[in-house]
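Listing S7. Sequence submitted for prediction.
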Amino acid sequence: MSPHRERLGGQLAALAALALLVAVFTLDPTPAVSPDAILRAARGLAGALIWILAATGLGGAILGSSSLAGALFLGTGVLGLGLFGLAWVGLFSGPALGGVAVAASCGWLLRPKIELPKLDAAGWAVALVCGAPALINALAPPTDTDEIYQHLAIPSQLLHVRGLLGGLLHPDASRPIPVHTLYAAAMSFGGEPAPKLLHLLWAAVGLNHLRGLGDRWLGAPAGGAAALTLLGSYTFARELGLAYNNLPAAWWGLLAVEAAVAGRRKELAAYAGMALACKYTAAPVVVAAYLITWRGLGPRAVPTMAALTAGALAWVAPYWLRNASEGLHPLFPYAGWPEAEGIVFTYNERYGLGRDWASMLLLPWNMVVHAETTSYKFLGQVSPAGLLAIPGMALAAWSRPAARPVLAAAAVAFVGWALGPHWLRYLLPAAPLLGLAVGAAAVALPSWGRAVLVIGGVLGLPASWGPWLGPTAQEAAVVVGATPRETLLKERVPGWGAIEYINKYTESDARVALLFSWPGYYVERPYVLGSVEDHVPARHLLLTQGDAALTTLRDLGVTHAVVGEVRFLKKTYPFLDDERFRREFTEPEAALGELLLKEGTVVFEEGRYAVWRFPDGDR
């Protein structure tokens, strides 16, 4: 395509995006934004930008010369681990965080050479169309399950206790938390929206880097095809404005693969370790990056790979050592729940459409055609462009040698995901590599083949963007201050009435147990337990303590409990026999009900949630 035609296409895309936004606001005029909403957004953005600039300065100083993504994410990884150390010694407070931000920002004094991203009109158009709903998500009150039980709850707890929590009472905080320490630091400066805005800025930098990397490695339009494939997938797009750890893991994994291709081994070890520390589901991408390096080493393979592996694991080891020092399994809470035989954190069989050979061979088809965003059939949605691109990937592997390392890495990452739970969200760390594979196909295919990819991607948008944009439209009125945030919270947060009761009608020194419930982020009292993943913490307590479960909680100072009625269904776990299902799911929930009737008093009840007070708990 000539430069003139490319510019014209970009300008037309920008005009189309602008026309779309004008039409939306004309048909459904948004009320004027309140001053409080503007101040809240400005403070959140400032809190996010402080840590963007600090991380980029630090990473740039370490690397000397780098892309913006390379400097930003290297600095982010170093800061994440450093802030974890600060929390471990109990110094996670505002003044200390301010000192860290200033010290990291001093990296700019060394004047690192950082290549700033460039966007043409088409890039700005895509940023505008996708960025507007993502910005609404970022500024809206958190209602996503994982945010309110983990990704924002952990940072909130870090700031409250000025240090680390963890163990059986706070199992989510025993995970590796390099991203969550950054979220807490951003929240300390910018309030609630800051972590989500920080995540959105990370996503913008990562997507732009993916776009440039694809064009550089594979030729135009590979980079654009890769980025658009991801943005056209619900599972990717819905996380843009949330505070999650899947996309940061994806960008660290992509940078690890880039470093492996370029032969920059120290960077490979660092980015690989940061990806693993962020999310263990990044392991297949890390393996792919290491295989690229191993392939060209020859006789030096064993010692070099051993050194690189040690370098990567150094970023994860502090979290393992922390768990071990507290008498827990290094991989807790994913493994090693003490004194509870058979406890499984995640059942692989629960997701997808089967794990027999036929189902595994049909996995690329099933994950596109049969996926649903509201059921355990992959629990998400991806663009059909990836499925349609498979013949093009084969053509690229045969005809374009430059594409082979990318395609091989994508294949390794995909197979690694397929061996675990078939939850599409767990595929996100591999998403940039899979997007590049689609980009390689777009380059190798003739014009009519590229047209098929485009048409398939467009036809897949309603299934992917519908579930994303529908809830986002409801959030807009809250974001601009036209609708009270409590209206949205009552509608979307399970057990919100019970949480309100705790916050309004219990003493400030009350301590709460979340049993078969999880909105810990909104509990304005110290709390224990409360994570999801099949409600393992509550079931573990009941399975190991038996009739003494509530006595154990009272001995720990718990005065109230927010209890949800789960009603575990056997059809959700068809792979378990009746006896095991009854022992691990039905009996613990029934036992809790009996104990509460004997030892507690219900003080609030709404729907499937209730607040129980324990003896001597009404203080």
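Caption to Listing S7: primary sequence and predicted structure tokens for the chain studied. The first strand starts at residue 65 and ends at 67. The mean pLDDT is 91.
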